[in-house]
Every structure is written in C-alpha cells, then in structure tokens.
Amino acid sequence: MLQNMSKLSTVFMYYVGSVTLLLAFSIFRLLKLFPFAQPIVCELFNKMATIKLRREDFAHTLFTRPMFESMRSSILLELQKRAQVGNLAPDSLVLSVDGKSSYQLLDFCKGNRPLVINFCSWTCPIFRARVGEYLSIVREFSDVADFLTVYIEEAHPSDAWAFENNVSIKTHRTLEERCKAAQMMIDSTVFQCPVVVDNMQDTANKAYAGMPIRLYILKGRKVEYAGGIGPTFYRLDEVTEWLQRNKMALLRNNRHRA
Q1: With a threshold of 0.90, does the pTM exceed it?
Q2: Above 70 in pLDDT, residue 256?
Q3: Contacts 24+ apart (CB under 8 A), 96-101
C-alpha cells in the first residue's frame, strides 16, 4: 500500500514538474522574441551554468524541445533516486572503461575512508571547464579519501540537446559507444582516480540522479553528502569543506590515540 502511494506521489510530482517546466519554457520563449530580452535570458542561463558560455554556442538551443526533454528527464531522475543522506548507498553495477570488467559501486569503498563520486560526461561544458578543480581536490585529499568518476549518459549529445563548438558525441546506443566516450575523456585529461562507466540500463545514474553532473560522498557505505542537481548546484567547494572537516577530525582522533 505504502509503495503504491509512493509511486502515485512520484507520478503526480513528475507531471506537476513537467507542467511547471512547460509553462516556464513558454514564457521564456516569448521573451526571446524581444531583442532587448535576449541578452538577459542568456545571462540568466550563464548564471545557472556557473561558467561563462559563449552566446552563439547555446542561445539557439534555449527553451527548445531537446532542452525540455533533457530537463524533464532530470526531474524524473531526481524524484526516483534512491541515494539519500544517512541511508545505505545504492550498490549499482559499473564497468571498466574497456568494458571488460564489471564492479559494484561499493567495491570502491575502503573501510571507513570517504569515497567521493563524481557523475559526469565529456559533452558537459561545465564539467570540462571545472575538471581541473575537481582533480586538484583529488590530489589534495588522496591521503585521506578515495575518488571515483562515473561516466554516465551524455549531457549534450550531438543528436539531442547539442551546443555549437562542443565535443561531438552522440547518445550512447551501446556499451562500446559509452566506453569510447569515456576513453575520449581520459585521453583529454589525466585522471588520478579510477574512472568507470555506468551500464546501459543506467542503474547508477538512476539510483543517484547523476545527470548531468553531480557529486556524492560515501563513508562506511552510507551516503554522507549528496550534492544538488548540476550544473547550478555542482558545488566542489562544499566537497572541499566536507573533506577538510573530515581530515581535521581524523587528525584530532590520531592525536588522542597517541
């Protein structure tokens, strides 16, 4: 009974969210018809993106059907995700970048060491712009924490919500295509942490609502930190602060033991 009520609630919230999104899109599409409003709308989008994107790369895609479908998909993922702070972390199946080995996500948890998980794809310009910041956190805290990058479905595939002058990767139809995309990312940037790919049933993405980018921290196989939906709430500073607090607590405990 409770499970059925929960499903009905999810369906209701999904449709409410979809209708609200549709209304917002309709309003902004009207605003875009007025030349004076176009720069304002684009600046608003850049603030949501958290980085400065060139207008000519994205302006023509704003409030189109592909953008609507992408954002509606993110709403559904958020409503259905199982990863909740304080609860046991979902143990999803992931694969090596060559597609030959499979793992459970929690295989990467080592004792009581924190595990920072970064869900991403290489067509996300925000992730590409901030990957250096993420990897600097990996280097700074690798003595007290572990890190894992999970490659999920593309944020801006060339056959859906595509930006101009972006990395050209189509929507993954096969595991081989997803692995190839992840390899492209690895070839472009040196990762000092393991990189795995989500399976083609997207179980990790669905469990953690990782699309388009998202951060989590697990500890003792439980969710200790759940970042908000990216890109707006992709907060690397919050991860840094959490790891700093954890490191200080670890140092204090070691002093007391000594």
Answers
A1: yes
A2: no
A3: 96/196, 96/197, 97/151, 97/179, 97/182, 97/183, 97/186, 97/195, 97/196, 97/197, 98/179, 99/175, 99/176, 99/179, 99/197
